[in-house]
Specification:
Two copies of one chain form a homodimer.
Chain A (H helix, E strand, L loop, with lengths): L12 H9 L2 H5 L6 E2 L7 E4 L5 E8 L4 H7 L3 H18 L3 E11 L4 H17 L3 E9 L9 E12 L14 E6 L8 H11 L15 H5 L7 H10 L2 E6 L4 H5 L8 E5 L8 H9 L4 H7 L4 E7 L4 H7 L4 E8 L6 E3 L1
Parallel strand pairs in A: 4-5, 9-12
Antiparallel strand pairs in A: 1-2, 2-3, 3-6, 4-6, 7-10, 7-11, 8-10, 9-11
Helix pairs in contact in A: 3-4, 4-5
């Protein structure tokens, strides 16, 4: 039996890249003078005329964690996830949230499920001082399997122009500070579910590897929000850029916070990969590189900061971990593990 | 055989209202001081600190027109639709578009279909001077039927505070100016498809009622954009408020542009209901009230303007139609046909 890969489980990131490359020029033609930067950042940037405010807009979904939420009757979690995912993407650009809108789509609306999902979104918005400004509820008979629904979230945040994070500010030798994830967050669930199916894992059984917790509980932990931690970090350290480790794992996200010519040297022994990742990886014989290219492996957000500020950062954030540094990189692989 | 209704075809708007009512208080708790107004408008309003600019945010989908786009291989149309729908919602608040983000979700990404859909969105954005600022592409194996995909759009526009349209500005006697729709736009497709299935209509056959055009072509006309027309209208007339006639038809939308205590008197003989609506309505024995509560019946947008400006409006916009006026209304039905 060969090891499982993300591609083998049905998700092929190169297809998405191919798709995007076909329309890049047409998207470029929509650029207005207020737009800063191009495609590829964690959020789009738009200057507000006559101010030094930059709006940061981001959109996300929660992927096939939706299927687990349904199976395990944990609908609140994906509502929370969606808001936290968007908040973190905005944070990666240096912004704090202003308002959020949601799209909820299904074949037949179940008002109770809707209220649990969108109610949790509202609570997560309130906790982040973010207005839930609108939403769209679509009922499309026959589009979705019975009981299935899809979610999309849109968040607009703002940042003063001079507080905008920019990979171009990153220099050789800058420190990489990792913030722990709470689990898979909202990425790599298709691979996780393929492992579970193939290995016949029981979502409800307490597991010694998870200190007696169940796999279902571990998989349904909400996506961590890093708003508080990033605020603290920016108060004590010169933060150059931030990577939110989402779909595409380490190589897919950390380079988005780095300028051309620089890469990341990451010391894997700086933290212990949480047992959830090891358990899933081993049960599916998922190759090591595939794990790191799909899952966050225990670190949800990486801040690139001035090396001299690393001690202050670690003192201010007891959970933070010094995971490596920035160095020159020439090849296509820009995250190197040591 | 009894007549078809929207509810009978699988979409029950009261379910969505029930769902929303369960979370209204939790949503209200997310309100920030910058937020203007409440739930129920065509877009959410958010003041930009230190300016007189108000951001208008709106989110939409295109409903089961997606299924027809797939059947008829007309993927570009739904991309255009999504942008136009969002642009019109922003217009209804008085705003013009700034930027747009899209969410594209499917079981397995087909790069060619993606490029046709999102490429058309990019072109529609460019035509409206709107930046396509970002997007999310989700591949969720098993969530959707083979070849199916879902779309959500998110648009942010802006308007000077004193140019904001507000139903509270509407007075008894104001004129209702209708702008023709290009077809069903993006609403009531589930009912239309149920009619087609039950009556066994052929999407590809030329029909005399459609002047030799096919039903498929008539159903796949893109959602009209009213940006140019509304700009013209605002140049020649005092526009009080605007209703974009989308899901819920006339009674579901026109009252959203009116203050409490006022209703709309609409003269149905002011325009000819386009043959597409009559053909579908008759083939499905759809009750008259149901047609007007589901479809736009030939008018895509209604502007409420000062009565004295009606002649100037009609002169400036040759396609526009004087369809009625505002009058006091006490009951629950606020759109009365004459």
């Amino acid at each position: 039996m060969s090891g499982l890969t993300y591609k083998g489980s049905g998700v092929d990131i190169t297809r998405a890249e191919d798709a995007l490359s076909r329309i890049r020029e047409r998207v470029a033609r929509t650029k207005r003078p207020e737009v800063i930067g191009g495609i590829g950042a964690f959020g789009g940037l738009f200057k507000v005329a006559g101010t030094d405010t930059v709006l940061v807009a981001t959109t996300d979904g929660v992927g096939t964690k939706l299927e687990l939420a349904r199976e395990l009757d944990r609908h609140e979690v994906v509502g929370t996830d969606l808001v936290h995912h968007c908040v973190n993407d905005a944070l990666a650009m240096g912004a704090e949230p202003l308002f959020f809108l949601d799209y909820f789509s299904c074949s037949k609306l179940d008002p109770e499920v809707f209220a649990r999902v969108v109610g949790a979104m509202a609570d997560a918005c309130a906790a982040h001082g973010c207005a839930l400004l609108g939403g769209e509820t679509a009922e499309m008979p026959g589009m979705y399997r019975e009981g299935a629904y899809d979610l999309a979230g849109f968040l607009v945040g703002s940042v003063a122009r001079d507080q905008l994070l920019d990979p171009l500010q990153v220099g050789d030798g800058d420190a990489l500070i990792g913030l722990p994830s709470s689990g898979l967050h909202t990425n790599g669930y298709t691979l996780a579910r393929a492992v579970i199916d193939r290995a016949g894992l029981d979502l409800a059984a307490p597991l010694p590897e998870l200190r007696g917790g169940t796999l279902g509980d571990a998989l349904m932990r909400p996506h961590a929000s890093y708003l508080g931690a990033v605020r603290t970090l920016r108060g004590v350290a010169r933060v150059r850029s931030i990577a939110h480790l989402t779909g595409g794992g380490w190589e897919g996200n950390l380079p988005r916070a780095l300028p051309p010519g620089l890469g990341a040297r990451v010391h894997r022994d700086a933290w212990t990969v949480p047992p959830l990742f090891t358990l899933l990886g081993n049960a599916g014989a998922v190759p090591d590189a595939e794990r790191w290219d799909t899952w966050n492996m225990g670190i949800g957000l990486v801040a690139v900061i001035a090396a001299e500020d690393a001690r202050a950062a670690l003192r201010a954030l007891p959970d933070a971990i010094a995971i490596g540094h920035v160095e020159t990189a020439t090849g296509t692989t820009r995250v190197r593990f040591a």
